[in-house]
């Protein structure tokens, strides 16, 4: 995944979560791409395969989701 594509996906995911107050759902056709992006990044993060920059962005997304739960 190119850096431009990653940044676009990250911004789309962040906007989606902010707007819908939830993460994307795997079975909703129009949300599937964002769902796959998020969960692929989560897997890479847990495997310690994300760069520091991408890892920090991923943690920002997790914080955003956790704020919704509070």
Describe the overall structure:
The model has no long low-confidence stretch (mean pLDDT about 95). The chain is mainly alpha-helical. It is globular and about 30 Å long. Helix content is about 75%, strand content about 0%. The longest helix is centred in the first third of the chain and has 18 residues, at about 5-20.
Q: Keywords for this structure?
A:
70 residues, mainly alpha, 73% helix
Q: Would you spell out the secondary-structure blueprint of this structure?
A:
Layout (H helix, E strand, L loop, with lengths): L2 H18 L11 H15 L5 H18 L1
Short summary of the structure?
The protein has 70 residues and is an all-alpha fold.
Q: What class, by secondary structure content?
A: mainly alpha
**Percentage of residues in helical conformation:** over 70%
First-residue to last-residue Cα separation: 33 Å
Number of helices: 3
User: What is the tally of beta strands?
Assistant: 0
Low-confidence stretches: none
Mean pLDDT: 93
Radius of gyration: 12 Å
Main β sheet profile: none
**SSE succession:** HHH
Strand content bin: under 5%
Shape: globular
């Amino acid at each position: 995944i190119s850096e431009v594509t990653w940044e676009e996906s990250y911004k789309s995911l962040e906007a989606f979560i902010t707007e819908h107050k939830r993460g994307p759902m795997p079975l909703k056709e129009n949300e599937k791409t964002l769902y796959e992006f998020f969960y692929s990044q989560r897997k890479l993060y847990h495997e310690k395969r994300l760069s520091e920059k991408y890892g920090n962005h991923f943690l920002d997304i997790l914080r955003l989701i956790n704020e919704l739960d509070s």
